[in-house]
Write a structure and sequence with these properties.
- The protein has seven helices and no strands.
- The mean pLDDT is 88.
- The chain has 170 residues and is mainly α.
- 27% of the residues are buried.
- It has a single domain, classed as Four Helix Bundle (Hemerythrin (Met), subunit A), CATH 1.20.120.
């Protein structure tokens, strides 16, 4: 498989992680069939649950804000900004772990907009440097990491198990 072909799989993998894999007829590569993905998982979590922390870890709200912020930076880059990471403050998301119901809804909406925009950008072929290619691929893997972390924090955010997938096929 050459680089061009490889880059074409990124939008599919990103979509599966973020938007889910509810179509029973499609293959899945990262999640079980019927999984709502990141955004669907966050929609099942209340603001109170999104604001809780365990053993000094980050809250679900902080993870969501961290992803939103990262997507906003890569979207700026895709829109022509030369170095949106230059002045990035990656600690900012972790400083506001608690959200109200209104803030939680607004955060999820903003995350959805940034993720949808990045998904569209992933589908555009472009020449990129080695460093930029790492950033692009990293957005997919980093999102998967945070989905896993969120699902460890709150059971309500988890997707279907392999046993659930077997039931879907029956």
């Amino acid at each position: 498989m050459n680089t061009v072909d490889f880059m074409k799989v990124l939008p599919d993998l990103f979509a599966e992680i973020v938007f889910g894999s509810s179509d029973k007829s499609k293959n899945t590569y990262m999640l079980n069939r019927g999984d709502d993905g990141l955004l669907g998982s966050l929609d099942r979590v209340s603001a109170s649950a999104a604001s809780s922390t365990h053993a000094g870890g980050g809250s679900i709200a902080a993870h969501a804000e961290h992803l939103r912020y990262g997507f906003s930076l890569v979207n700026q880059w895709a829109s022509g900004a030369k170095d949106p990471w230059k002045d990035a403050d990656w600690t900012r998301a972790w400083k506001k772990p608690v959200v109200s119901e209104e803030e939680w809804r607004a955060l999820r909406d903003a995350l959805r907009r940034e993720a949808e925009a990045w998904h569209r950008e992933l589908g555009i072929e472009r020449e990129v440097s080695d460093t930029a290619a790492h950033w692009v691929v990293g957005t997919v893997t980093h999102t998967a990491y945070h989905l896993g972390a969120i699902r460890q924090i709150d059971r309500d955010a988890r997707g279907p198990t392999a046993e659930d997938e077997r039931a879907l096929k029956a």
